[in-house]
Specification:
With about 180 residues, this protein is α/β, with parallel strands linked by helices. Helix content is about 50%, strand content about 15%. It has helices at about 20-30, 35-45, 50-70, 85-95, 110-120, 130-140, 145-150, 165-175, and strands at about 5-10, 30-35, 75-80, 100-105.
């Protein structure tokens, strides 16, 4: 691949179109697509253990960052609800000389529920049950990206208190093992 590699970040809540967009980016940008839910489903089936999800995300990020370092485009399909997650990945890409394109997906709760119901009816093997209450709680926890974060004009803040680098924070957020 010629030129500067790009890290594509899909940001949004469940059922907002992130994976559909990630699949399109994968083809159009010749990007390695890393979708956590596909790995969790393959390894755990009906279970969705939070601690395992964090480890799988961390392992996929290691692969993604290595692919960027080798000059390949990468699309991360995790949701990235927390600004710190996005900042850590923006910094990691910058450290590797890669560009970042963030894609934010937002829908009304009504449309999100409709898509959830449609997905659970048509392809239950690709998802987990999600209640209306969970969708509402997740929306309350979601850090909506600022315009400058989305377009890349806003510099990456320093890491949170207690961490000297984003790399250190990233290793803490995405642990290397379940234990």
């Amino acid at each position: 691949m010629m030129g500067q590699p790009t890290l594509f970040l899909t940001v949004g809540l469940p059922c907002t179109g992130k994976t559909t967009a990630a699949r399109r980016i994968e083809i159009e940008q010749e990007a390695l697509r890393l979708t956590k839910d596909e790995w969790v489903k393959a390894l755990y089936g009906r279970e969705n253990p939070p601690s395992a999800g964090d480890v799988i995300e961390g392992r996929l990020l290691q692969i993604g960052l290595r692919a960027l370092d080798l000059g390949n485009n990468v699309v991360i399909d995790f949701g990235l609800w927390d600004r710190n997650e996005r900042s850590a990945l923006r910094q990691a890409a910058a450290d590797l000389g890669a560009a970042v394109e963030m894609r934010y997906f937002e829908l009304t709760l009504t449309e999100q529920r409709r898509r959830r119901d449609q997905r659970q009816a048509a392809a239950p093997h690709t998802t987990w049950p999600m209640s209306d209450q969970e969708l509402t709680e997740w929306a309350d926890r979601f850090d909506i990206p600022a315009p400058g974060e989305l377009d890349g004009s806003e510099p990456v803040d320093g890491p949170p208190a207690g961490f000297t680098t984003w790399d250190e924070w990233r290793r803490h957020r995405w642990p290397p093992s379940v234990c």
